[in-house]
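Practice record 12: protein with coenzyme A.
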Amino acid sequence: MFSLPLRDDAVLFPLEVRHAEEFAAHMDRAREHIRPWVGQAFVTDDLDGARGTLLRYAERQAADGARLYGIRLDGKLVGGVMFVSLDAVGGTCEVGCWVEPAAEGRGLVTPACATLIEWAFAERGLHRAEWHCRGDNVRSGAVAARLGMTLEGTLRESWPFGGERHDTQVWAVLAPEWRAAASAR
Ligand SMILES: CC(C)(COP(=O)(O)OP(=O)(O)OC[C@H]1O[C@@H](n2cnc3c(N)ncnc32)[C@H](O)[C@@H]1OP(=O)(O)O)[C@@H](O)C(=O)NCCC(=O)NCCS
């Protein structure tokens, strides 16, 4: 498949099963950084696990559901964004993201997520894009805010991790809000 320039040094591309070795090597760099903040099935330890993640997303994409995209910075896979879910009938999706430590604070994730949301609204005609994060995930909440999302509520103690239960924030942006913000820009 083709890749989309995010800016001069970075591209967004569909992350597929054939990228398993590259994804596993990236996961070695990202694992401990993302572990507290993402779904535990996403944090794999070896090549088989990495391939399993890519296969799971490929199968869900084939059914017009979840989708996974990588971000390459200077040619190296440093993270990515995804549709955690996509419900074409219900008109909703959930977007997610991660990067390895060296790529954090580089401004890569927000435009990558914006690309997915724009596609969801403009191309697929969805109405609502959600963002779920741990309540204490300040950097993730900041991405949602930069995307123009509204913090709609908190699911109390719904995120088990490390023997504790954490709150989950639910953020969302609606298609008319997205279009109005684009027009204002
Ligand atoms: C959540 C996460 C992806 C956010 O990454 P991020 O790098 O903070 O987000 P962005 O890519 O949008 O970058 C914004 C930052 O880059 C900075 N930046 C640097 N160069 C920039 C540029 N050219 N353009 C825009 N911003 C730039 C911004 O100032 C901002 O930094 P600040 O928050 O310290 O002010 C990252 O912290 C992460 O992977 N965390 C672990 C996994 C995780 O939590 N995933 C989300 C689960 S819900």
